[in-house]
Design brief:
This protein is of the alpha/beta class. 47% of the residues lie in helices and 9% in strands. Strand 9 (247-248), helix 10 (267-280) and strand 10 (286-288) form a beta-alpha-beta unit. Bound molecules: D-gluconic acid and manganese (II) ion (2 copies).
Length: 391
């Protein structure tokens, strides 16, 4: 039965073909579900209320397809996307499955592999743009090492930069309306991956020839695998104007790359993330890069997809309740009043020799300031009670 948590296109939920199409293969076990026809995935996603669908080049067009096969596949796919009322906001390249990428793609030690990776990416960019994508994701799954005995990590970063600079120029020359989003991940499938976190990627982007074209596609599971706080990572990306796209899922720290249904493991963190996205006015797609448990059949896959979207909408409603709850807002207003009562010289006014001198001379009531409690226990408990449904 449809209810207020049934997704609408305007909620902008998207899925990768590889997510709902995941057949449940893992390092220890064979696939448990048949390969899903992309056209079927598109139809089902449309029915479920999703807004869009994303793909890697080879989710759609097999690695060894002829140009004629490619054109037919793309024609049929575009028709199915249009029929389902969907869009393709994002596309990406598979630079990790084929054995040629065993030692990386843009950062491979072998110059011919690096060149092939660029060729494959230019073709995949053309494909993405042809389908309407305006964001192009770079997840460097194989860009890393198990041993650093040969390739220097200094060279690896230089190779990565060369590739990004080259592809930015390609997009400019083609006149494409396309932005790049780097997706950091600390490990898996490589022992260690270069640009492992949002912070590393932000620092790298600043060194590119066209930093304005390149932002981030942070993923909940990836920062969590690194033991980091995803909400902080997204916050820093937003503050830098670099949140170009986002991969939503869930993950327990210290485990394998789980890609669980959004909100299923750490609902409080998921809630705070949704609140951040909504409060900040982020208007990009809410993309699920997650997969159904390996226990599931196709029905389970659609239950999983519905669950991802439903939980987001429930968290969004909870965020609205948080912003309207008199007790919660009462605590926040009291804290704010106290936090903003200082009227002396500070960094917010900017630096001048006068303000520096004034700050040197400023007297503080250290005893009173040190004794103030923050009421975060009360506030956090109210968040918990909101989430547990007793408010
Ligand atoms: C992973 C990654 C990928 C990327 C995808 C799109 O851990 O496997 O998250 O799913 O997001 O390749 O770039
Ligand atoms: Mn991932
Ligand atoms: Mn991802």
């Amino acid at each position: 039965m449809p209810d207020q948590y049934t997704p609408q296109k305007s909620d902008k939920f998207t899925f990768g073909l590889w997510t709902v199409g995941n057949a449940g293969r893992d390092p220890f076990g064979d696939p448990v579900r048949p390969v899903m026809d992309p056209l079927h995935a598109v139809r089902k996603l449309g029915e479920l209320g999703a807004y869009g669908v994303n793909f890697h080049d080879n989710d759609l067009v097999p690695f060894d397809a002829t140009p004629q096969e490619r054109d037919r596949i793309v024609r049929e796919f575009k028709q199915a996307v249009a029929d389902a009322g969907l869009v393709v906001p994002m596309a990406t390249t598979n630079l990790f499955t084929h054995p040629i990428f065993r030692d990386g793609a843009f950062t491979a030690s072998d110059a011919s592999v690096r060149a092939f990776a660029l060729q494959k990416t230019m073709r995949a960019i053309d494909l993405g743009v042809e389908c309407g994508a305006t964001t192009y994701v770079f997840w460097g799954g194989r860009e890393g090492t198990e041993t650093d005995a040969y390739r220097s990590p200094v060279d690896a970063v230089k190779y990565f930069r060369e590739a990004m600079n080259f592809l930015c120029e390609y997009v400019r020359n083609q006149g494409y309306d396309l932005r790049f989003a780097i997706e950091p991940k600390p490990n898996e499938p490589r022992g260690d991956i270069y640009l492992p976190t949002v912070g590393h990627a932000l620092a790298f982007i600043a060194t590119l020839d066209h930093p304005e074209m390149v932002g981030l596609n942070p993923e909940f599971a990836h920062e969590t695998m690194a033991g980091l706080n995803f909400v902080h990572a997204v916050g820093q990306a937003i503050e830098a104007g670099k949140l170009f796209h986002i991969d939503l899922n869930d993950q327990v720290p210290g485990r394998y790359d789980q890609d669980f249904r959004f909100g299923s493991e750490n609902p409080k963190r998921a809630f705070l993330l949704v609140k951040l996205l909504e409060d900040s006015g982020f208007d990009g797609p809410r993309h699920y890069d997650a997969k159904a448990y390996r226990t599931e059949d196709e029905e389970g896959v659609w239950a999983f997809a519905r669950g991802c979207m439903r939980s987001y909408l429930i968290f969004r409603e909870k965020a609205q309740q948080f912003n309207q709850d008199p007790e919660i807002q009462g605590i926040i207003s009291e804290l704010r009043a106290q936090d903003t009562s200082y009227e002396g010289p500070s960094a917010s006014e900017g630096y001048s020799s006068e303000s520096a001198q004034a700050l040197r001379d400023q007297q503080f009531d250290i005893g009173a300031l040190s004794a103030r409690g923050r009421r975060y226990e009360e506030l956090d408990q109210l968040v918990m009670e909101l989430l547990l449904g007793v408010r």
